[in-house]
Every structure is written in structure tokens, then in C-alpha cells.
Amino acid sequence: MPQMRVSNSPNQECALTNCAFLSDADHSLLGPGGDVYVEMGGYVLTARADRRVEPGCVALNSIHRGMLSVSNGASIAVDVFSPSAAEKAGAAMVVFEVDYVLRQRGSGREIDAGELSKAFLARFALQYVTVNQPVVAEWQGDNLKLTATSLEVIPLGQDTAKGARRGMLGPQTQLQLRPAAQSPIKLTGAAVEEAAKTNIFRSDWSFEAMGIGGLDQEFSDIFRRAFASRIFPVSPRVWTGMMLHGPPGTGKTLIARQIGKMLNGKEPKVVNGPEVLSKFVGQAEENVRKLFAEAEAEYESRGDDSDLHIIIFDEIDSICKQRGMQRSDAGVGDTVVNQLLSKIDGVHSLNNILVIGMTNRLDMIDAALLRPGRLEVQVEISLPDEHGRHQILSIHTAKMRENKYLSPDVSLEELAAETKNFSGAEIEGLVRSATSWAFGREVTVENVKKGAKAENLLVTRPDFDRALAGPPPCSRILEYGGSLPRLKETMSVLIQQLRASSRTSLLSVVFEGAAGAGKTALAAHMALTSTFPFRVATPCALRLGVHEAAKAAQIKSVFDDAHRSELSVVILDDLERLLDYARIGPRFSNVVLQTLLTCIKQPPKKKGGKLLVLESLELLDAFNVKLSVEPLDAPSVLRALGQLGVTNAAELQPILGSLATGVPIKKLLLVLEMAMTADRRVDPARFTETLQHAGILG
User: In what residue span(s) does the AAA+ ATPase domain sit (predicted)?
Assistant: First the structure.
């Protein structure tokens, strides 16, 4: 149909029908008679004939003109609406926000939502309603504006409802009403209660669409503890806060950011902890008060009918450290904590807020913030298991699969099994790295100006293998015989016993022996062959100029990370260096010693978790098992020479027969490096001389 000119509704009575009006001549062109459905700007209205409307005009009320962003005299396309099969189905449920047309003229009166729903359906039956469409209805002398926020339809031939953009109102349509934001209206009755139960979550959200995977159990805990009290109001108080904690990269920020997308509430306020602080005295406390000001104002006017306000604190440990620990005389940090505590659950508490804190250091948070009534729901976001890793891989490769850029030889199940101990962020990085290898095949220096063809791009399994490949582990040790087979067999038995036992969750083993005997190499080899997914060694940086408190905190962090995995191995290498031990004095760090003794004896926190602690040193009393790594005797040295490819090992046997003591494996390797020639021969004279210089041969 051609463009028509917009005009006002014929009178106030027509304006309250939610219909568009045409001249008799224009209306007859659309249909044989009666009401006709027309579409304008994506919205469907019922068109009726009225002789007071000029030909070529479409009469709309002020709400319709605002909805379509047109003014009187403007032109707009008017088309006959032909519903699809899905749109022919009646609306099963529609959610409306209720407000006054002119809010300044309205009062904070109570309205029975059930009675209003009945009157609304009786007046507007058989009319189409579209999401975000406002409808004006007169109620007891006041003009109300009801704006559709969501609706569900039951398609023909189906039994279940699903979300839709448009649907027809009918006698069976269920209306759920709630006051609009900042509206003084107070709704009462069953329709409001039902809406409160069902409308806390949006109907179209899904974990996969939000990019969240591997956190099924964590979300189950959050729903059960934080949201159940809002869905089923069995108590006058609801949960007002939660704390998400865990290692970096596991999805804490992603969860908090996406929670707002699945809740029907205000847009979440995301605050980075340091942003609250200020150089001006009292400004930090005012910044905290501003975060809660909107929720307080709405709660005063609407009470329990107010919308849910979500406030998210990222890195909350930066502003909520334990009080009394600040070195500054001003105590600025303490006053910020006090202000936040009083706002979350003070004398005037709020039921319309949900505060979410995120931190990597739960131990630094003030205890008062974690008590019941404040951030009492504490959820640890740990490393994903194999099923979770598969979900995350599926999310990050979804576009590749959709555009057919992922090769059929890539198995997400195999990748999930091979990415043990990967966090969600690391899996995302793995996919990006594999994609970059695929880009590298198609884009080179020569063809970068020509441009690569997208249809040639294919991410293959070798690309993921190259992304997974890191520095090759030095897992090979020389099979020199002697006590080595016995040590390896004993360790294998211990590892298998720890893995299979239902009673043993912690096993600590110490390797003691002379310097250079191979204790560290044996510990690393057994950790790699154990196939435990979490393997970590204490960093060398702990031994270089780090003060005692920082060293103890890093050791505790290593064990905390190990407790998050089901099977973990921790290697404590050179314990003397960790303890700052000196024989003369003697001198050692008691702070580090007590930390180590506590951590070594503490069983895993995770249910079913197993922890194996391997150490090369002499804190023997703290360990369950003591394995001595002995130096090599003459027969063992000969076997080691054979494995190293020495071609004249037999010529060296008389020299080895005169050894007074055993030879540590590290010293043997050093001596051979000094005495070996290019053809893999060892000069006997040079070999004897280097043994003497090393203090092995008298």
C-alpha cells in the first residue's frame, strides 16, 4: 500500500482502543469489511474505518506515534499484515510493565492485578501485541500504559510454549503484570505473585549462548542458594550477596558479567575494586554510597515490588582487606570496608539488591563481609573437569564448526582429555593458537597483499597438536641399575596405592641422599609418569631474595592450587634453600618451616581429591615415606656408560675398580663431558684426572 499521512485519533474514546483508523475508502481497499490487521514499523495494529478520518491518512494516538517515532503530518508505510503459521497461534503468556501515561498526575495507589488483567483481555481480545509495544488502557479514571516486555506462544500442533516476538491476545492468554521502573503504582493480587516467581529469569537465556561452559555444579549452587529465596518467598529476607573465588582464568568475571543477562532486573553495575578508591578524604566512601543510591530510592517508593539491582565488584580484595591491617594512620581502607558493610546489611537493609564479589584471594577479605546476611554465598570457581573442558571447547569452536572451518579430524573429546589442568581462559587461548597456525598456512609474506581466501582456511588436528606442544619434558633418566629400579618400583606402588585407595588422600615422600645423586630428576620423572593432571614444582624465584612472609604465602598458594584438582603432585625441591637453612649457626626460617609442615600434613579439601608431595631433602619427620637415593657403584657406572654410548667402557673398568666411594650421577655426567672425545670414546688418562679433580678418586 502507498505511504499514508499520520494524523490524530478522531477522539479520546478512539485513542483508548489501541487501534489505527482509516477513511472508509482506504479501509475498503484493505479488506472486505470489519477489522483488518496492518503492520507499521514492525508493529501490528487493528485498523478500523471511521468517516472522520481524511482519505490518505492513518489516525494514531500519541502513544502509537511515539512507538513508531513519527509526528503528525509525517508519512508512514501501511501494509496488510499476513501472519505466519507461528504468528497465527495465540499468545499463551504476556508480561506487561504497568505505569501511568502521565506519571506526574498519578498517585501511588494500589491496583488489583487480577482485576486489571481481566478488564484488559476483555477490552483488547483478538488484537496483536508485539514485544516493547505500549498499550493505553483506562482504569478507574486513570490512563495506564502497559508495555509488553516478553511473551510466549504455543505453536499449532505443539504442547509447550516458547518465546516469541508477537502474538494475539485471547481469552486463554495469561497476563503477568509488574510495575515499571520508578513507577509509584503498587500492584497486588495473584498475577503479581506469579510474575515474581517466573520473571526473575529471562525466558531466552542459555549457558551456551552466554559463552559459559564447565560450570554446571557452580551454577547449581548459585541458583540453589542465591536465587531460590527470590523465586519462592518463604522468608522475609532473601540472599543479598555472593562471593566468587578461585584461581585466575576460571570464569569468575564471565559468570558475574553474564548473570545480569539472564535476570529481569536493572542493568548490572560492574565496578573494578580500585575504581572506588580516591585521593580525596571521604570520596571513596561516597563512591560506595552512590552505588546503592538508586536501589535505596526505589526501595523507599516501591518496597518489595522494586526491581532487582545487581552490583558487581571485581577484585574486591583491593577494597575489602582485613580491617586493622593497614599501616597508614588514616585508616582509609578500613572506612571503605565499614561503609560497604553498612550498605549491604546495616540498620536499613535492602531486599532489592544482589551484590557479587570476585577475588583470587579469599583469605584477604574481611571476615565481617562474609558473614550471613552479606556475601554469605561463597562459591569456588575451580578448574573444569573433562566434561567441562569439552563444553568450553564446544563453545569456543562453535563459529568454526558453523562456518565449516574445523577439520573432521579434530575430536573435541580427545582434546578435552588432553587438556588436563587447563582453565577456561587457557582453553580459549589454545583454540586461538591453533587458529593462528591455520592462518599461517594461508597467509604468508608473499600473498599477504593478494589476500587469502576464507574457503581455504581449515583448522586441523595438527594445528591443535602444535598449540598443545610446549618444551619437551626431560622425563628420561638413565637406567643405571643399582638402587634405581627398586626406587622406581617402590614409587610406582605408592602412586597406585594413593590413586586406588578410598582411605588414603595424602601421601608425602622425601628423597634424601648426597648432593647430585639425582633426587630432583627422580622426583620429576615419577611426577610425570604418574599421569596426575596437576603437577607443580616450587618456583626457583622463592629462593631469590624473597622475604619470609611472601615465601610462605607463595608456598600456601601452590598447595591451594593443588587442592583444587582431583589428582595432584607437588614437588618441593631443595628444601634447604626454601628454609634459608645454614649449618653454621644454625639458621633457618621458622615461618616457612611452619607453613611447610602445615601444608604437607593437610589433606585435600576437595572430596575424593588425592595429593602426592615429593621432596628432595631432610625434613624427614614430616614425611610418610623415606627413600634414599644412593650414588652409583662401579657396576652401575659401567651400565650408565653403556647407556650414554661410550664405546670403550671396558677400558675404564680397572679405573672404576679403585673407586673408594660411590659416584653421584651428576658428577659422573660432568666427568664424562670433560673426558669424552668426538667419537664417543673416553680417554682413560683424562678420565682418571677428572675423577681426581672431582674428589671421587684419591
Answer: 238-385, 505-633
